[in-house]
Write a structure and sequence with these properties.
The chain has 305 residues and is of the alpha/beta class. It has helices at residues 28-43, 64-74, 90-102, 144-147, 167-171, 185-195, 208-221, 256-266, 280-290, and strands spanning 15-18, 47-52, 84-85, 106-109, 139-142, 153-157, 161-165, 175-177, 200-204, 227-231, 233-235, 301-303. The strands form 5 sheets. It has a 3-stranded parallel beta sheet, with helices on one face. Helix 1 packs across helix 9 and helix 3 (90-102) packs across helix 6 (185-195). It is globular, with a radius of gyration of 20 Å. Mean pLDDT is 92; it is low at 1-9. The structure holds glutamic acid.
Length: 305
């Protein structure tokens, strides 16, 4: 994928995506993920898709979907196919869950968070597989030991290198459908990336912890695995990741050029100063033409300033 022969995947159509959750407006950190995935896709003459991950209504902010889409529009980051909304795709997630149930890859579990505190929240092994009482709310958990017998498990990230986690201590039997009947991010993301033909996932390193769970699901469901590149996260002065949760300021819709120039610099791309007075279109074309993702290799976080 990335601009380096080591990563070339000739003959493979490239489909990338940006998949924000509408928990708040886009901020500088989200622009970095949007821009990096866009530039990587376009520099490979690929498609770039937008997917709104609106799976968790209690965490959503009213109007965030509209704000996100308006901002992407103002920044001229357009989806090459119709925008997908996860809230409309329950039937696909159900079909995947049915397949996992049939293959015995998942089991119902009524364990509470409180019960799992002693094991750092990681559910590993059989607790309540024989749950028979239908009146107890239960989640569906993925049986990680059925899926993988080796521990630790690992994958190669195109920017961060070899990444491993322990099944027993880090991953465990993770939830694919929650007790409150909402779909878990892990399952929905894997189903959608597959359904949309996504070949390359470029996103923030804060999501790298999810990748091995997603790989296990892809394997169990018989899906091909995309390639992954996790970019560093932008931190505020206090060292905390910029996020909607810690109220990072919303991206200014009036000044896309200024922010894209700043984002390109942050991504290690060294845009010429004169482009600060260019148009969004020119700046994005420069970015596509000069995209050097490996300038971010091995970097985990950087100050947003
Ligand atoms: N929806 C996730 C978020 O906003 C991103 C998911 C992904 O890129 O895999 O953090």
């Amino acid at each position: 994928m990335l601009n380096n022969s080591r990563y070339s995947t000739t003959n493979m159509p490239y489909i990338g995506r940006f998949a924000p959750s509408p928990t708040g407006p886009l901020h500088f950190g989200s622009l970095l993920a949007a821009l990096a995935s866009y530039l990587d896709a376009k520099s490979h003459k690929g498609k770039w898709l937008i997917r709104i991950e609106d799976l968790d209504p209690p965490r959503e902010m009213a109007n965030a979907k509209n704000l996100i889409l308006e901002t992407l529009d103002a920044y001229q980051l357009y989806s090459d196919d119709a925008i997908v909304f996860q809230s409309e795709r329950s039937a696909l997630y159900q079909a995947a869950l049915d397949q996992l149930i049939k293959q015995d890859y998942v089991f119902p579990c009524s364990c509470s968070r409180k019960q799992l505190i002693a094991v750092n929240g990681v559910h590993f092994g059989n607790c309540c597989r024989d749950l028979t009482d239908n009146s107890t709310p239960f989640a569906w958990r993925f049986d990680c030991q059925k899926a993988i017998q080796t521990d630790p498990v690992s994958f190669n990230d195109l920017l961060q290198g070899h990444f491993h986690q322990s099944l027993q201590h880090d991953i465990g039997d993770f939830v694919v459908k929650r007790k409150d009947l909402l779909w878990a991010y892990q399952l929905a993301m894997v189903v959608d990336d597959f359904q949309q033909g996504v070949t390359h996932v470029v996103r923030g390193i804060d999501l790298i912890d999810s990748t091995l769970r997603q790989n296990m699901l892809q394997q169990a469901l018989g899906y091909t695995q995309p390639q992954y590149a996790h970019i560093p996260v932008a931190c505020a002065d206090n060292g905390q990741k910029l996020s909607k949760q810690n109220l990072a300021p919303a991206l200014d819709i009036q000044h896309p050029v200024e922010n894209i120039w700043r984002a390109l610099s942050w991504l290690g791309q060294k845009p010429p100063k004169k482009l600060q007075s260019s148009s969004v279109k020119e700046l994005l074309s420069w970015g596509v033409e000069h995209w050097q993702p490996l300038n971010l290799s091995g970097i985990k976080s950087k100050s947003a300033e």
